[in-house]
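Changelog-adjacent note: as of this version, every example in the card shows the full chain rather than a window. The one below runs 385 residues end to end.
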Amino acid sequence: MKVSNNVKILSLAFLFIFFGYNGVQQYLTIYFLEAKLFKAGFNSLVLIYLFFVLSNLLAAVFVSKYGAKKCLIFSSLFYSMFIFSLLTPSIFLIYIISALLGMASSFLWTAQNSYLIRASDEKSYGENAGFFSVLQSLGSALGIFVLGFLIAKFSYKIPFLTFASFPLIGFLLFFKLKDLKTEKVFSRFQLLKKTILSKTALRLSSIWFGLNFIFGLVIGIIPIQIKESLGVSFVGILSSLFFILPITLSYFFGKLSDVKGRKQMIIISYALLIVGLLSLFFSGQSMLLVFGIILLALNWTIIKPITYALVGDVSTKENLEFLTAFLFMVQNIGVILALLISSQFQIKTIYLISIATTIISFFVAWPLLRLKLKNLREKISQEIS
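Full-length structure tokens:
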């Protein structure tokens, strides 16, 4: 089964957006550090993630009402706006646009998963999600590598100005998408309330929380451990695995999940995660550290397209946007919590907390994973409708 043209356009647009944005984000704290404003970079990132979480539920209402295409077009503009703002002397303006970008991100990603599912056949959710992950990861990886080279040659101003133009290419590509209409809902806020109160949706969200809690470690404590154990030159090499492996393997694992089933792939992902965290916990030797990071990167490669596809498996056309937004909200709470914990505890303690979080996440979700996807979808639909 071939990937549809609409999914190709969607994926290509995200490649350009995150070529620009993720390239700049990777150097954000370094940029402010060199300007002797290190806290400004950290505060900007916190504002982006915080407003992402706070706006997720509102995004569900807007995407459901106005459609994914319009929300994709509108929200994508803020990525260029944010990069341009970094070149202004006003820290206050950067903070304001960081908050706006966080809100726009919630709209963009809720619209993305809504459109991906609506543009896909039910039997190809995993394949299309894998294809999307490949292109989005490719854009991010290339952006980071190219911007690093340009900064070394031209400093920051010219490269940032150049990279601010790439999200605009994604903005223009969104106009080529077919406008896929959403279902008319009697009361969107009532549906949103029922989604939040759904016990089944809450238990299912433990998968998103647990697995993205680990992603918070990847951007928080793990780079520090790499630097202390192997040296700063290995930070980029090992961190790049979280982009390189999805580029090469996400499509394969996404398509495999259509054939073998989502449950089996999720179990494999959790197994990789536990072994990887144990390796990092006992990483007195460099080999165990590298092995643990490879397993976490492989876990990320598998679970990224699976979670996109799983939303389609367990949602209906009426509650897709609301369930998507709720799961993204829980996912980013996991990231923020991991970042906060990483700044408060010793490395060994952090890994013990992470292992416990992963085990609890699995056992909370396990009773639902034992159900057939059709039954799980009906169970959630009954609680939300």
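Structural remarks: DSSP finds 18 helices and no strands in the chain.
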